[in-house]
Design brief:
- The chain has about 130 residues and is mainly alpha-helical.
- It has five helices and two strands, in the order αααααββ.
- About 50% of the residues lie in helices and about 5% in strands.
- The longest helix has 18 residues, at about 85-105.
- About 0% of the residues are buried.
């Protein structure tokens, strides 16, 4: 097995500059080298059998590096086709969403930093039926 340090890739000044800029390049190059030396699946299975506590810790570390976290993340999408809804359904949906907004409102609703205004058209201002 070889020992010692390889050729320096960065000067200390370069590293300090990159760290100040939160640049990940020094870590990415070393990570690529480390991944080339990854153990075989058989070696991992042996390690897990001999040291289950250390294997669990290693598994958690690798999962974190892969973007998995132990905090619950809830995401959802809402896809509505409002053109297919009738007036009563639209009014009901609008009221439901306004109540939801009131429950979480800490100021006016925004979209990309711009105030979002919801207006309800009076019947006299409503769009004319198709064909008029």
């Amino acid at each position: 097995m070889k020992s010692g340090m390889g050729k320096k890739r960065f000067t200390n000044a370069d590293l300090l500059d990159q760290f100040r800029d939160y640049n990940r390049l020094p870590f990415l190059e070393i990570l690529a080298d480390l991944m080339q030396g990854a153990p075989t699946p058989e070696a991992i299975a042996d390690f897990a059998e001999q040291h289950p506590d250390r294997w669990a810790s290693a598994l958690k570390t690798v999962a974190h590096l892969g973007g998995f976290h132990d905090k619950l993340e809830v995401t959802h999408n809402l896809n509505l086709h409002i053109s297919n809804l009738g007036d009563a359904q639209l009014e009901e949906l609008l009221q439901e969403k306004l109540l939801e907004l009131e429950g979480v409102k800490k100021g006016p609703p925004t979209l990309d930093g711009k105030a979002l205004v919801v207006e309800v058209l009076e019947e006299k201002e409503a769009l004319p039926p198709d064909g008029d």
